[in-house]
Specification:
Layout (H helix, E strand, L loop, with lengths): L19 H4 L3 H33 L4 H50 L2 H6 L2 H43 L1 H8 L2 H38 L1 H6 L3 H26 L2 H25 L5 H42 L19 E8 L8 E8 L4 E5 L6 H8 L7 E6 L2 E2 L5 H5 L2 E4 L8 E2 H5 L8 H10 L3 H6 L7 E2 L8 H15 L3 E5 L7 H15 L3 E5 L3 H4 L4 E6 L2 E6 L1 H7 L2 H7 L8
Parallel strand pairs: 3-10, 3-11, 6-9, 9-10
Antiparallel strand pairs: 1-2, 1-4, 4-5, 7-8, 11-12
Length: 586
């Protein structure tokens, strides 16, 4: 398998349609914000006209009373414009934050429903980037770029209309620089967009590297590999630096280009406008107003260029988010729910491969009656965990059927099936949160009495009482503040509380010491009672009393029978047993 992603298509406006359902509830606030922006823009458009009137009608004529009235009105309108902009900014921030919160929630919920095989192909770091950087790009679009594009476009039209009305000649002088600016900004914006795409991609790589290094810190330190992983991280981080510097270098030309265009335009207006004032074909007020309009005219152009960059980022993020949202999930509401399970399990000529071209299980047939314990043994890579994965419906078989109580599990609702099975892994995964929250995982309605009863059954109640551990004790990440044995027993208690009809133990005692194993055996006896169980284990003490022991080798069933029957054969199981690959003690 590979983590390399296929070349991604370019985003289109259709990709941004995913935002529509999330923006709809905020339409009232969105329209209010647009109304405020239009009002503020109209004030901004006509403000230079006050300057023109002040110079031509009051300052030149010495009309101080009229000048005071005009200035007072201009100040009042400016204050109103500022208030409108503040309120608009708060409204748009709320619209953006609320909409994107819903997007992030739905994206996370979608990820929870995706099949395990999806996570086999996509690194965790890239998924984290989807939920952070890509969603943030959409937030910037909703909270800023959409309204900004509308308002900046209206401003451009408004400025041009008023400028042509004031003096068409000076307007043409102003526009003489616009094509050069537009070309430069279009070119730079495209370059910046590509550079930022590279930054986002390299950020995903760094996130993946960081996540793997932190998750595997014990292995790294155990093998004294800190220097290797540090160098690896430095290399990826340096690539991120180079990508970031390239984006910054390209962006560094952006504002100077805009400022240079404004300076050239203003200089041209002053030169030609000054001549026309001297020959009487325009007024001083008009010249000052046109100079002001020239400065404001480039503001919307800058805004549109920035909005374009935001849209490009949002399009790239929307494509990646849509890929996840469009991914096939494991839920099919059209299928009937799984009826209450009694416990018979049958693998009927099952063939499976994680890649269809690489088969890992060949024509597997297993039958288990309700309440039986089935032990799966074999060398590493034999296919034991693949059988467990199929029973959990983490993957689907390529051929054959898996029947529970004679029912094909792939023809019934997945959630109702998984609610009736329990899974205890070799490396128990405990989540950050309280002990109670971790134990209620499979049964949220479990009472404290039920929880303590389960802890007592697995031999933890007395230990916890001695160390003042309560159900409100907070677990650190992965339960690191508990010992390996305690974490395993907690996972046993969690399975016991959920009361599954089918229990799956994937080498669940592999990391438990001999003393703890005695507690585990007592807990197992209680846990297995009345339940159909599939057990993968290396320890003979765990599986010697199993109803069936199935020896797997190279994806095939090599031997099948009880402990005594298989020892009598003196075949593969006998070799595993005598070489202590099963009966290994610590």
């Amino acid at each position: 398998m590979t983590n390399k992603e296929p070349e991604r298509r370019q985003g289109t406006i259709r990709d941004l349609m995913l935002l529509v359902p999330y923006i709809k509830p905020q339409l009232g606030k969105l329209w209010a914000a647009i109304g405020l922006m239009i009002a503020a823009s109209l004030i901004s458009i006509f403000m230079p006209m006050f300057i023109r009137s002040a110079i031509d009608n009051h300052i030149i004529d010495g009309n101080l009373k009229g000048l005071f009235t005009l200035v007072s009105l201009a100040v009042a309108l400016t204050m109103a414009m500022s208030g409108a902009n503040i309120l608009r900014a708060r409204l748009m921030a709320y619209v953006g934050q609320s909409s994107i919160k819903a997007v992030r929630n739905d994206l996370f919920a979608k990820m929870q429903l995706l099949p395990v095989k999806f996570f086999d192909k996509v690194p965790v770091g890239k998924l984290i980037t989807r939920l952070t950087s890509d969603v943030d790009a959409l937030q910037e679009l909703v909270g800023n770029a959409i309204v900004s594009m509308v308002i900046d476009s209206l401003k451009l039209v408004g400025f041009l209309a008023v400028m042509f009305w004031l003096d068409w000649r000076l307007t043409l002088v102003t526009l003489a620089v616009a094509p050069i600016l537009a070309f430069a900004l279009t070119y730079l914006t495209a370059r910046i967009g590509k550079a930022e795409d590279l930054v986002r991609e390299q950020t995903s790589v760094v996130n993946t590297n960081l996540q793997e290094s932190i998750s595997g810190i014990r292995v790294i330190q155990g093998f004294n590999a800190e220097e290797y992983f540090h160098e690896k991280f430095q290399k990826e981080n340096h690539s991120l630096l180079q990508a970031g510097m390239k984006a910054i270098a390209t962006y560094s030309y952006f504002w100077p280009t805009v400022d240079l265009s404004w300076v050239l335009s203003s200089a041209a207006i002053l030169f030609f406008g000054g001549r026309w004032v001297l020959d009487g074909t325009t007024t001083p007020g008009t010249l000052v107003a046109m100079t002001s309009y020239a400065g404001q005219f480039f503001g919307p152009l800058r805004g549109l260029s920035q909005a374009y960059r935001i849209i490009q980022r949002a399009l790239a993020g929307a494509v990646r988010i849509n890929e996840i949202m469009a991914s096939e999930v494991e839920v099919d509401e059209n299928l009937p729910p799984m009826p209450p399970i009694r416990g018979s399990v049958e693998f009927d000529q099952v063939t499976f491969g994680y890649d269809p071209d690489e088969i890992v299980l060949h024509n597997i047939s297993i039958k288990a009656e309700p309440g039986e314990t089935i032990a799966l043994v074999g060398h590493t890579g034999a296919g034991k965990t693949s059988i467990i994965n199929l029973l959990c419906r983490f993957y689907d078989p390529l051929e054959g059927r898996i029947l529970v109580d004679g029912i094909n599990i792939h023809e019934h609702e997945l959630a109702s099936y998984r609610r009736q099975i329990g899974l205890v892994l070799q490396d128990p995964f405990l989540f950050s949160g309280t002990l109670r929250e971790n134990l209620q995982f499979g049964k949220p309605t479990a009472t404290d009495e039920e929880i303590w009863k389960a802890l007592e059954t697995v031999g933890l109640a007395e230990t916890f009482a001695q160390h003042n551990v309560t159900l409100d004790t907070v677990l650190t990440e992965r339960g690191a503040n508990f010992s390996t044995g305690q974490r395993q027993l907690i996972s046993f208690a969690r399975a016991l509380i959920s009361d599954p009809r089918i229990l799956i133990l994937d080498e669940a005692t592999a990391h438990v010491d001999t003393l703890t194993e005695q507690k585990v055996q007592r807990a197992l006896a209680e846990l297995l009672k009345g339940r159909t169980s599939f057990v993968i284990a290396h320890r003979l003490s765990t599986i010697r009393n199993a109803d069936q022991i199935i020896v797997i080798g190279k994806g095939r069933i090599l031997e099948q029978g009880t402990h005594e029957e298989l020892l009598a054969l003196k075949g593969e199981y006998w070799q595993l047993s005598t070489s202590q690959m099963i009966a290994k003690t610590e």
